């Protein structure tokens, strides 16, 4: 099936999960707590009468769907997303149903969860069976690396640029299996790195015992975006020369690329990708997905409540913030209505303008590459003689909300997105100029 076909034929459909898991036989109707004739899988639409419609072609109208303070320019909203009016309405609706009749709401929840997997697949150009639902990127990373079958003489190849969640998940995988973890540095100067350098350094580091390559799509430490598809194609060439048992599994932390880069997940040429949906997608807090090309290499770590079918079996069971998980539909619908490509273009255009403006300030060093091919929405800078945490406080006093990268080498970090504007980018540049 072609990419365009995948994205157009997948709607928010149901596979009958409630019939299998809610105590009904395949021939029985699933239970419903909705009024007669109503659709129990509806999210915000049933209660969205109180939510004004918006114009997806008007960026001011898009911004108005977020309750973020308009007195501040919000360049740190991507860290943990605010909820749109549509997402908040859906959460409220699902919470009300849970409070009124928890048992019935949980039965309906199987259908709602399946609808979310369909919505995620439609947005990401994937198939529903390739989607597992999680609570965060960290949970997804644990599913990837904890579920792989490795031997003591196997090697996990990763980098010196990854976040704690990947580093510790690999430590635990090594402790469990005895596999060795080896790290490679992909760039010395992030601002001047290139697709060729990033790909070459990674591929050159692959050894005969490498069984897993563990990478991060966009480094939150520097804003560098790895050429995942190019690296995946190179690893596929290596795998073609190997026996099946010796092939490399390519795993990606995709959280700062998902909804910030316009690509279908299958086109990334990786095997697994974990992401939170409460960052650049601006989905409900406490939600995430794992995409898997083929789930066979992974053993589930936590028993699932979602059924035996592929994708669902990798969705950890237990009780979650169900009203948030079920409302994830609205976040995907919000982006689909605007257009994934338009959302990404808006982000990249502002990030590019921000980097250009900051580069002209004496005393400011832009750490993130100027080239959009190796960057996304994150923009990191070094402010001469001013610690990043201090810069964050001073910028807030000037009306700009920024963050500091949580790494040993910390930078001031700004993330333009659909909640910021070109005018606010200009304000941010002027404010940073006042720091030096």
Give an account of the 3D structure:
There is one protein chain. The chain has 14 helices and 13 strands. The chain has helices at 3-9, 17-21, 59-63, 85-100, 102-124, 137-146, 164-177, 195-205, 228-240, 322-326, 328-338, 340-359, 388-397, 422-433; strands spanning 73-74, 131-134, 155-159, 180-184, 210-216, 249-253, 272-276, 288-292, 364-366, 379-383, 400-401, 403-404, 412-414. Strand 12 and strand 13 (412-414) form a beta hairpin. The termini are far apart. The model is unreliable at 1-49 (pLDDT under 50).
Feature tags:
Aspartate Aminotransferase, domain 2; seven-stranded mixed β-sheet; 436 residues; four-stranded antiparallel β-sheet; Aspartate Aminotransferase, domain 1; globular; alpha/beta
Catalogue the unreliable spans.
Answer: 1-49
Question: Helices and strands: which structural class?
Answer: alpha/beta
Say what the CATH topology of the domain at 132-331 is.
Answer: Aspartate Aminotransferase, domain 2
Q: Mean pLDDT, nearest integer?
A: 90
- The CATH architecture of the domain at 132-331 would be 3-Layer(aba) Sandwich
- Level-1 CATH class name of the domain at 132-331: Alpha Beta
- Through-space gap between termini: 54 Å
The whole-angstrom Rg is: 22 Å
What's the β-strand tally?
13
Principal-axis shape equals globular
Main sheet: strands, sense, barrel: 7 strands, mixed
Kindly report the name of the CATH homologous superfamily of the domain at 132-331.
Answer: Type I PLP-dependent aspartate aminotransferase-like (Major domain)
Number of helices: 14
Beta-strand residue fraction? 5-15%
Query: Strand-and-helix sequence, N→C?
Result: HHHEHHEHEHEHEHEEEHHHEEHEEEH
Helix content: 25-40%
Order the strands across the largest sheet as they lie in space: 2-8-7-6-5-3-4
